[in-house]
Queue: 4 jobs
Job 1
Amino acid sequence: MKLIVGSLLLAASVSAIPAKPVMLGTSGLRANLKTRQAKVIPVVVGGPQDTFNPNSVTAAVGDIVQFQFSNGNHTATQSTLEAPCTPLNGGVNSGHIPFKDGQTDVGTFSMVVSSTDPMFMFCATGPHCQEGQVMMINPTGPQQVLDFVKAAQSTQKSVDGTAIAGGTTSQITLANAAFVPAPPKDPAAGGGAPPAVPPAAPPAADPAAPPAAEGNATAAANSTAATKGKSKRSPILLAY
Ligand SMILES: *[C@@H]1O[C@H](CO)[C@@H](O)[C@H](O)[C@H]1NC(C)=O
Ligand SMILES: *[C@@H]1O[C@H](CO)[C@@H](O)[C@H](O)[C@H]1NC(C)=O
Ligand SMILES: *[C@@H]1O[C@H](CO)[C@@H](O)[C@H](O)[C@H]1NC(C)=O
């Protein structure tokens, strides 16, 4: 009975997002159900800053990392610690997925995690990788994430990916996204109604990108310090 309920839940969680089904052999499926359920792990790409949020996640085999693309024009592209801003041959690549002011849908790229080895991802747009727009899946520890960011910042330029690979592109509604977009840069430009702001997205993923405090460096510095003082924990839950 337990196994049947588990199967239904697994099916529900996997079909809840438009991604390829998790392919597991019968024994693999049983083992997986005994221990835990596959999770969908949101990662916000871009927004007020060129970042991945969070920039480190822990995922089990079968879990789905769902990159949700906020403001800008970003990619989630696999690389290596040695060449942080260059696509790994045969690696995962979302392609460039933009988000513009007023958009009510959010582009996503969902990839099924097939190994618990550390995986390195960067944004291949312009200088974003040199600005530190990188993230890791299953780092050996916090230090490896820092090392990866530093290595990325040390590069001169990025190499763009080619074909979309290793995942599925789709869309979700903005109300279901794990972020609130940056305010429109030029409210007059959109002409139409303001974007449908989701009132209160469920706090599944920490959307806590600090608000852009452009044009007031003093206030920004102070607010950064204040945020640091509170020391927000990473939203990654190791819940089973
Ligand atoms: C996103 O960036 C890529 C690469 O620079 C570019 O080819 C594409 O046109 C851009 N898309 C949008 C909508 O700006
Ligand atoms: C910058 O922010 C501080 C604190 O919020 C405020 O007192 C000050 O007037 C602001 N300066 C400008 C130029 O907006
Ligand atoms: C920034 O913080 C410092 C020290 O806490 C304070 O003296 C200063 O007034 C603050 N500035 C603004 C603009 O809030």
Job 2
Amino acid sequence: MPMCTVYISGPISNGTKGSDKNMQDNVRIARKVALDLWKIKGIYVICPHLNSPWTTKGQFFNTGMSYNELILKDLKLIEKCDCIFMLKNWEMSEGAILEHFYAEVIGIPIFYFDEIEKLKKFILNRKVHRCHLCLTKGKIKVFRIGPKKYKLCDKCIRAFKEVRESAIKELKDKYLILPKL
Ligand SMILES: [Zn+2]
């Protein structure tokens, strides 16, 4: 079973009005869900609540980064995950709404707080297709090179075709003298 990386998304600082207690409640809720998810076989859980400087009131660590810088880093992290899991009240968090939207845009599956069973099924039935050459995940086509068949991504197929065309051209230029009509 290929490992499935899940990104947990939900309110951290949003809606807390800067209250440390409310932020800690958000972190506590996320931690509980993360623990439940970790119990699923084949899963790897990314819980930014437990590993990020979002809660900057000195409680955790303060990087001095702006909200925008942090959210961009979170979006980059989502790109590396196989799916996203939305915590309860995610609609109340600006950051979570953005993460949800981004997951839709890049096309990774989205699961909601009451869909743990659905997530389990997804992990169980998931097949990861990777390009034989560059190991990119996603859309893969069967491509024939000589007698062999390879599963390749569009980028690698394009690159191979370019190399083949320029090689053929070079061969023609060097060795074939076509009769002039
Ligand atoms: Zn490739």
Job 3
Amino acid sequence: MKNHKIYPVQKSEEEWKTKLDSNSFQILRKKGTEYPFTGKYNDHFEEGTYKCRGCGASLYDSSSKFDSSCGWPSYDASIKGALEFIRDTTHDMLRTEIVCSNCGDIKDMSSKMDQQQQENVIV
Ligand SMILES: [Zn+2]
């Protein structure tokens, strides 16, 4: 599914390529996936706020981060309004794409959602 929403932060593909390193560009803009246990913030549990690499918007408070042992940073809640949950039914699967609501950077693909997140789903 192509996301046609207009986000407050708008950049062309070329501008994103300039702003992000090539690995981040693939992950944030092209639905690439970081290898598990390789991310800088996987084992990071300091107090603070996790921000979008693309636009700097605050996404998660450190109090919501937990050790899921899955290899990627995990949070049980996002900062209110920081993320959008977009239903993706391509490849004959029902998944949810989690994106920054300020710039549209992709944060996660999930096959399940909790009740609160479902209320925010954009179809
Ligand atoms: Zn962003």
Job 4
Amino acid sequence: MKEYGAATNLNQINSEGVSVQVMPLQMENDLSLPNLTKLPNLLAAISLREDRNMKVYNESGEDEEVLDNRKIFLNKLGLSEKNVVGVRSMHGDNIEIVINKDCGNFICDTDGLITSQRNVYLSITVADCLPVIIFDPLKEVICLVHCGWKGLEKKIIEKAVKKITDNFNVDSNKLIGGIGPGIGRCHFDVKEDFLPRFKSYPDAIVIKDGKNYIDLKMIAKRQLEIAGIKKGNIEMSPVCTYCQSDKYFSYRKDKSSPVQAMITVAGIK
Ligand SMILES: [Zn+2]
């Protein structure tokens, strides 16, 4: 199979138009998924609050300052924005398969990306929503899903796994799943009339001190399992973005307008 963009991920064009090599910094991996992120052929990372806002598109259009923040963070990972595909997410369930020619673009109305090509790095933004990574390390297929309660209600994770197995001749019990930092059940309290949406996940509903909480990470894990991924192949970050809002952006805690968010990046090296 032809490899696209090989060996370009460490090259940057400087202000004089000269290609220079950017070395990846040794950085702590804040996705808090140690098994997944140690896989040698996978690059997966999340930015932090200190890296500033990564949500490029808001109500008033494209934010140039955010594009700069994004470029700086991607360079820190040893990537160029020219190797990265973004989304303009809609809290829907649309998932697109992308290839080398999609790099540098933001795919509209999409909450999940899949690729089987090396050096095509997938990206989404999250602030309380979950970044979910699905990976086949042997056949080298990767998927990154932006997953809030709306996507989970639409079973976006099950749809993502089906799209991988239908299109890439992959067996779901060989897949690895990772659920990254997001709002924990400690802080996702909802009104009682919200609960029926998730009645098929009774273990994910917690009623404590007269308040109702939903465990979105548990629902994500359930959907990975229902789609055929082995329990032992699923890793879940313990980080609640609301509890750790000094380090991560949190939509519920920050109440900022426009919304500020982290970027999650995942791709095959
Ligand atoms: Zn919390």
